[in-house]
Design goal:
By secondary structure, the chain is an alpha+beta fold. The protein is built from 9 helices and 10 strands. It is 51% helix and 15% strand. The chain is globular, with a radius of gyration of 20 Å.
């Protein structure tokens, strides 16, 4: 998608009030329709401006920045410089490093990055945030909705799944809410993957960005991308990450993680088939296959 590199006039005026001497504006949006991010400079200083499609993601980003300020060091997460719910927009500080997903790392450096990512996430998870009774009810409702989605996918995909895949998706639909009731509730990042990790090899620093999906939830939900995309073919990255995190998964956590990941995979597959999108179809089938094999090792 092509993005307008210029800031909307009202946003530019707001940014200029907080960052006097606004110099350059560069489009830094992700290649998806609702991403609107700009890198701005004022002399030698750099910051990021982000616009949101609605109030929910804006509020999550603000809360996530506040959580990061308590949980992580100043060079590990952007600091909130200004926010305005009427726009809705935020200005955050820049961090050293580049997005990990765009880097070509050798195996040893990749393991180092994943170990640091595990350590950072543990500190993020261990920083307490109060969760109200309605908040806990919302978490259970979210997990129940995922189980219901799996049941719906199972019903209409039918013979397009193998017998083992059907058994796994059926377990997602029946068991996911019950098992997660016994698991640790934390403040999740919500999109914990290399596209939101920064790596600066010059000083071996690891950073974390993008908090618009952050919210209270089940801790292992933050492992889902890794479980589906990285760990099946790179067990060394799993070990490095969990070493950094400081603990192996319990049996209940491992089972829940496989069920959460299988739910995402069957959702990919269902959407891909409905929209005839080969990338989603292939991703769904591949991850489901990985989870069937992981389930066999319970």
């Amino acid at each position: 998608m092509t993005h307008d590199a210029s800031l909307p006039r009202d946003v530019r005026e707001w940014v200029a009030r907080h960052l006097p001497g606004l110099d350059t504006v560069t489009d830094a949006s992700w290649p998806r329709g609702d991403s609107r991010i700009w890198r701005v400079t004022t002399g030698e200083e750099e910051a990021f401006v982000k616009l949101y499609p609605g109030p929910e993601k804006f509020a999550r980003e603000v809360r996530g920045c506040e959580h990061a300020a308590r949980a992580l060091a100043a060079d590990e997460a952007p600091r909130l410089l200004a926010s305005d719910p009427s726009l809705p927009a935020v200005i955050t500080s820049a961090l050293p490093g580049r997005v990990v997903r765009s880097l070509s790392l050798d195996a040893a450096e990749e393991r180092r990055v994943h170990q640091l990512a595990g350590h950072l996430l543990r500190r993020w998870h261990d920083c307490p945030e109060p969760v109200s009774a309605p908040g806990r009810a919302s978490i259970l409702a979210s997990v129940t909705a995922q189980a219901d989605e799996a049941a719906s996918c199972l019903e209409h995909l039918g013979e397009q799944l193998t017998a083992d895949q059907r058994d796994l998706v059926r377990e997602v639909s029946l068991d996911l809410p019950q098992i997660t009731e016994r698991l640790r509730v934390v403040y999740r990042h919500g999109d914990y993957s290399p596209r939101n990790w920064l790596w600066d090899p010059g000083n071996s620093s690891h950073g974390l960005i993008d908090f618009e999906e952050s919210d209270p939830g089940i801790a292992v939900e933050d492992f889902v991308w890794l479980c589906g995309a990285a760990w099946p073919t790179r067990p060394d990255l799993r070990q490095a990450f969990l070493t950094g995190y400081g603990s192996e998964l319990t049996e209940a956590e491992q089972r829940a993680l496989i069920l959460f990941t299988a739910r995402l995979a069957v959702s990919y597959l269902s959407t891909g088939l409905a929209k005839n999108e080969s990338v989603l179809i292939e991703r769904g089938r591949t991850v489901l296959g990985h989870m069937v094999r992981a389930r066999a090792g319970w």
